[in-house]
Amino acid sequence: MISFTHRSSAIDGSLVPLRRFVRDRSGNAAIIFALLCPVLVGASGIAIDMTNLRAQGVKLQNSLDAAALSAAKEYGKTQDKKELQRLAQAYFDVNLGHDTTMPSRFIYEGTEMENGHNVLVVSGERDVPMFFGPAIAKLLGGEQKSMRTLQRSSRIVIQNRSIEMALVLDNSGSMKDAPAGGGGTKIATLRKATKDLIDQMMATSSSNVQYPVSVSVVPFSGAVNVGPENKSASWMDTKGIAPSHHDEFDWSTWKSFGVAQAKSTTSGGATTWRHSVTGEYLTRFYLYDRMYDGLAKRYPNGWTGCVQSRSHGYAVSDDAPSETNPATLFVPVFAPSEHNWNGSLASLKNAWINDKTGSTNGKSDLEALTVQRDMNRYFDTSLRTDGNAGGPNTVCNTKPLTPLTKTKSKVQAAVAAMEPLGGTNIAEGLAWGWRTLSSTPPFTEGRKAHAEDNLKIIVLMTDGENTYNAAYTTGQQVDMPNGGRSMYGTYGYAQFVENGALRPGRMFDSTTKSRKRADIDDVTDAMNENMTTVCENAKSDGRNPDGSDGIVIFSIAFDLKDGSPVKERLKACASNGVTGKGAKLYYDARSSADLTRAFGDIVEEISSLRIAR
Fold it and tell me: Do 45 and 39 meet the contact criterion of CB atoms below 8 Å apart?
């Protein structure tokens, strides 16, 4: 036991230093830290380098995407490779920034076909310094480059959409004035701004471009001119069967030597009038062709091309015209020679035949219109024509519309020919803009709704309120004392005779909110309501599954006062971006410069819409 105890004490004594060494942790920590320090420093350095490398890669890609997008937008205006390269390079440089420690290179590769699409391609490189890499390599052994070269590219599909655009432009009399906000005359500014838009949008309209732009021009004032060459078109009411065709006429009154010259027949709910001897259809076209002053035609040029608004609610639709539904046919305008009423507003009377009838003052509206509906004066060759009166085409003040065309020179000629004259009927302009984009008659140049890769656009510009009557300098429309209680327009009069009684005018046929009364305020309310209805119907035509508008509408209020009823409706009319979820495509142009900017912005917006990805 003693020897054992002695041996144990000796061992314990010899182990004390070792135990102290093990218990002394400070030395171990220093050694471990010394061993791990290069690894930690290396890992941190690599993390910093890689984070910077990743950030520069994202920045390079974003800069290339911006460059490609800018060139793609411009491609709709020019295919000049040098110009596109210059523009793309500028966007690349601005977005990437200049850094002498990181040299960069940009390449505009041009366009190529991919799966039937035209694809614009750009690429770029950037040399990114590796701050810690070389030092780590020396520490741990091996080779490490001091620079890493990043390579990225951006590809964007362009011109994958065809564009069909209707320019619906106000040509009313007020467009001859300068805007309150400054600048030249409104019509001159409109011509110039529209010309610039066409120059840019139709720059690609050539045979080597897959999807050229098609443009229609619809000048409007109190009416829209569809072109006198369409006199015999299938969609015109050439037989007088439309319900509104004879609103202003009573053919039963026409007699020669006491013998009735007209007879009516009714078939399928449509009433037609024919000459009792020749069997010819008695229509407004017949009147234009058969009215004589002595041996000369009263109006040698005949019908100049304007049509009335369709009745029975079809004024606000694009329903295809058909004889099976006579209300869908288009009726030529024919302002009747008005009855002989006198008073302070008699200068507004459109009595273009001096029929020498007595004054209708003191007569009821029904009695006055009964006198006006008498047909005999139109065929009395002894009655002189008053050249100072407006005549049967009085409301037809604009040049004919231009259907959709890819021919730039036709569009430019139509814009250059625009002249300011007449009142303002925005609903008619908008409806005919819509009809020029349609694939169904009266104009069939447009592609079908929902056609793949096709975008339909209306650009609507107006400078005034809807007006039906002449107005005072204050802008207030006059209350007409004649039997129709308004001037003649595309809806006829504010009231007319039907089945021997007065009824509200055709402007109320398509309204549900306006009071239906022959008063100019109610007439204007109806026109405003019709404008909104046409707008909403057009946007709904071919509405996309995602809810976006079938026809995208850009609207411009030019020199319109705040609080204007039309101004608010124009804003509501504008599409919420092309997706239906963006900002309103509405422009408030208070000066000539504002209008020019608005058209420029529209070009940029449409150019963006042509890019798919």
Answer: no
Q: Which stretch of DSSP H or E encloses residue 336?
A: none
Residue-wise pLDDT tens digits, 227-277: 999 999 999 999 999 999 999 999 999 999 999 999 999 887 788 999 999
66-91 pLDDT, tens digit per residue, is 999 888 888 866 778 999 999 999 99
Any idea which fold 162-225+396-479+519-609 has?
Rossmann fold (3.40.50)
405's enclosing H/E stretch is: strand 402-405
Give the pLDDT score at 5: 39
Chain centre to alpha carbon of residue 594 = 18
Mean pLDDT of 104-132: 86
* Cα 202 to chain centroid, rounded: 16
* Cα-only R_g, the chain: 38
The predicted model scores a pTM of 0.81
* Three-class secondary structure of residue 5 per DSSP: helix
**Cα–Cα dist 599/243, whole Å:** 41
Q: Which among 602, 610, 335 has a CA at the least distance from the CA of 486?
A: 335
Among candidates 115, 197, 157, 107, which has minimal Cα distance to 412?
A: 197
- Residue-wise DSSP of 313-381: TGGG--PPPBTTBGGGSBPBP-PPPPP---STTGGG----B---PPP-TTS-HHHHHHHHTB-GGGG-T
- 338 in Cβ contact with 482 (< 8 Å): yes
Is residue 492 helix, strand or coil?
A: strand
Q: Judge contact between 182 and 593, C-beta under 8 A.
A: yes
What region does 455 belong to: left with phi over 0, alpha with psi -120 to 50, or beta? beta
Count other Cβ atoms within 10 Å, centred on residue 3: 7
Q: How far is CA 489 from the centre of its chain?
A: 25
Residue of 564, 561, 574 whose CA lies nearest to 181: 561
